[in-house]
């Protein structure tokens, strides 16, 4: 399986890698800093640079539905790579870092808004979470103030791991109602916003809440009988 450099170091902007396969599905590397689309977070973009000076623009990163392997999708008309090629995998760092900030912000949102999470998405400009709150009115000004309070308090953000059995024994850790945390590999990754939020998550995050910067709740929407959608944007 592809070595996930981003899993241990979300701040790694590039890495040296070797092409394992390159076909109509995409380009598979032995290791990568590119996060594959999943958990509401978009796949990373960037470029693969070869030793002979070629550049292959990557427009998305996904996981193969059959094998789970990471696939780097090149733009149409890009140079062809071959197994054994040595490349430097380089992120579009500005885009990724905004994803990290917004993803961490949504963990704060989980702490501010009660209720199970029924869906969500992360973008470079905005993000959202859907909550199962059929009988509750949400105040966007209050949520905005609470989010910015938690941002300013500069809470540390750290990852840890528990076993599948420990995860099964602690079902209250799971906030997402529609998507179960990945299991079967023997362990599950937890993201801990110190004193604020603790839940399974495989995405990329900043090291402290202060890095998120000011945010604002754009609007709160009613999506069906139960769902309340809270949209968050960077307030820059």
Q: Mind explaining what this structure looks like?
A:
- With 236 residues, the protein is of the alpha+beta class.
- The protein has two domains: 3-91, Beta Barrel (Elongation Factor Tu (Ef-tu), domain 3), CATH 2.40.30.130; 96-234, Threonyl-trna Synthetase, Chain A, domain 2 (Threonyl-tRNA Synthetase, Chain A, domain 2), CATH 3.30.980.
- The protein has four helices and 15 strands.
- It has helices spanning 5-8, 93-112, 140-152, 164-169; strands spanning 3-4, 14-23, 26-29, 31-32, 46-50, 55-63, 70-74, 86-91, 117-122, 126-132, 157-163, 187-193, 197-200, 215-223, 227-234.
- The strands form four sheets. The protein has a six-stranded antiparallel sheet with strand order 3-2-8-5-6-7. Strands 9-10-15-14 form a four-stranded antiparallel sheet, with helices on one face. The protein has a three-stranded antiparallel sheet with strand order 11-12-13.
- A hairpin with a 3-residue loop joins strand 9 and strand 10.
- Helix 2 (93-112) packs across helix 3 (140-152).
- The longest helix is centred in the middle third of the chain and has 20 residues, at 93-112.
- The radius of gyration is 19 Å and the shape is globular.
- The N and C termini lie far apart (39 Å).
């Amino acid at each position: 399986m592809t070595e996930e450099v981003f899993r241990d170091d979300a701040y790694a902007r590039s890495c040296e890698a070797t092409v394992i396969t390159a076909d109509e599905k995409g380009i598979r590397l032995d290791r990568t800093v590119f996060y594959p689309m999943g958990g509401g977070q978009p796949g990373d973009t960037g470029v693969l640079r070869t030793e002979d000076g070629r550049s292959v623009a990557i427009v998305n990163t996904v996981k193969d539905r059959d094998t789970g392997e990471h696939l780097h999708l090149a733009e149409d008309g890009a140079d062809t790579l071959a197994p054994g090629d040595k490349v430097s995998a380089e992120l579009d760092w500005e885009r990724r870092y905004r994803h990290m900030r917004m993803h961490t912000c949504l963990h704060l949102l989980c702490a501010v808004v009660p209720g199970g999470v029924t869906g969500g998405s992360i973008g470079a400009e905005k993000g959202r979470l859907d909550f199962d709150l059929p009988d509750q009115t949400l105040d966007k000004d209050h949520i905005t103030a609470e989010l910015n309070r938690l941002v300013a308090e500069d809470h540390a953000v750290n990852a840890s791991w528990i076993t599948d059995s420990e995860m099964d024994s602690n079902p209250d850790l799971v906030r997402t109602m529609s998507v179960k945390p990945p299991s079967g590999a023997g362990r599950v990754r937890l993201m801990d916003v110190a004193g604020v939020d603790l839940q399974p998550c495989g995405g990329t995050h900043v090291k402290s809440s202060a890095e998120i910067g000011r945010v604002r709740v754009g609007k709160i929407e009613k999506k069906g009988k139960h769902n309340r959608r809270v949209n968050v944007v960077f307030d820059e």
